[in-house]
Amino acid sequence: MTANSENTKTQAKSIFSGSLPGQERFVAPLEETPLRDVDSIDEEAPATSMWSDAWKTLRKNPIFIISAILVIFILLVALFPSLFTKQDPVVCNLENSLESGNASHPFGFDLQGCDVYSRVVYGARTSVSIGIATTIMVTLLGGFIGAIAGFFGGWLDAILSRVTDIFFAIPMLLGAIVLLQMFRTSTSIWKIVFTLTLFGWVSMARITRSAVMEAKNLEFNTASTALGSSPIRNLFRHIVPNSLAPVIVMATMSLGSYIVSEATLSFLGIGLPTSVVSWGGDISTAQNLLRTNPSVLFYPSAALAITVLAFIMLGDAVKDALDPKTRTA
User: Fold this and answer.
1) Which end is more exposed in the chain, N or C (fewer Cβ atoms within 10 Å of the end residue's Cβ)?
2) How many Cβ atoms sit within 10 Å of the Cβ of residue 85?
3) How far is CA 237 from CA 156, 168, 233, in A?
4) Which residues does 99 contact at the CB level (< 8 Å), separation at least 6?
5) In angstroms, rounded to a whole number, what is the distance separating the alpha carbons of residues 153 and 321?
6) Verdict on whether the full-model pTM lies above 0.70
7) Is there a contact between 272 and 225 (Cβ–Cβ < 8 Å)?
8) CB atoms < 10 A from the CB of 39, how many?
9) How far apart are CA 207 and CA 149, in angstroms?
10) DSSP letter (8 states) at residue 45
């Protein structure tokens, strides 16, 4: 062993000179290891949060970019359909029945002589509006019930959990079919929204309950309580904002399923009446033309599929950004 090695060992050993016999540890001197540069913290760097880190991840995700572009385009079509077509979707002429497409009517005409393109464009407003409104109401109702149950626990959690189990045992579409039989004459989209909300809030309640139960045991809640904050203030000021990540993921991914549910109910003839333009209603009307004129069925079906796929892709990208543990390879 060389003199330099002996000196280094002696210097390292002196750091732990207070150890008992046989418990000495030999560590390389700090000036000889570059790890301190790796482990160092840039104190001048700006503070970051989960949301800023998630946004940085989303900006680099091609799935998010593609789905966001599709969702923005779909929302523009739903909000401003007159920008994309000048045809009235409810004005039909039987002389144009099943005519093929042309420059003015690119998708052709359906059996009643209605312009298929204009009905696809205006159908986006109905289907997307129902999906967004249902998602908002499900998030508010299920989030509130789940947050109350998860935060207070005890007998209140037991009662709310049993109520949740009862509604969870009822299939959403089956319950909606039974309930909507009483409102078949109504043309309002709110009957669909309230029905889907009534049977769809349970999943959101369970997700929120789990997130709140996890967040309420963290240090910031204990510190806030020690400073004199009330339980209700802790819940809505601190715990709920720190439990939003799984709720946002659930809401984004559920939006597409509510659009499909509305289309399914309209397809079965118990959702919106035929006087209301919707993708589900047009698909139901065109199902008998599948062999003779499939294009009439194809266009509203394709619009529905692309919309649902866009929201599912967006939800998957948001899930990967907000929960790194579930990131796909």
Assistant:
1) C
2) 18
3) 21, 29, 5
4) 105, 108, 109, 113
5) 30
6) yes
7) no
8) 6
9) 11
10) S
The neighbour count for residue 185, using CB atoms within 10 Å, is 6
N-to-C CA span, the chain? 49
Q: Which of 303, 297, 302, 264 lies closest to 282, judged by CA?
A: 297
Give the C-alpha separation, 139 to 118, whole Å: 32
Can you tell me the distance from the alpha carbon of 252 to that of 74, in angstroms, rounded to the nearest whole number?
15
Of 248, 136, 154, give the one whose Cα is nearest residue 201.
136
Q: How far is CA 264 from the centre of its chain?
A: 20
Residue 59 in tokens? 């900006």
- What are the beta bridge partners of residue 109? 115
Look up residue 90 and give its two tokens. 């409810």
Which residues lie across from 115 on neighbouring strands?
109
Looking at residue 21, the DSSP 8-state letter turns out to be T
* Structural contact between residues 256 and 308, judged by C-beta atoms closer than 8 angstroms: yes
Residue with tokens 């809505």: 236
d(CA 166, CA 157): 14
Residue reference for tokens 């002589």 = 113
pLDDT tens per residue, the chain (329 residues)? 455 555 544 554 444 455 555 556 656 665 665 555 555 555 665 656 667 777 888 888 899 999 999 999 999 999 999 899 888 888 888 888 788 878 788 888 888 888 899 999 999 998 899 999 999 999 999 999 999 998 888 899 899 989 998 888 888 888 888 888 887 777 788 889 999 999 999 999 999 999 888 888 878 777 887 777 787 888 888 888 888 888 888 898 888 889 998 888 888 888 887 778 888 888 888 888 888 888 888 999 999 999 999 999 998 888 888 765 555 44
Residues 6+ apart with CB under 8 A from 189: 126, 129, 130, 133, 272, 276
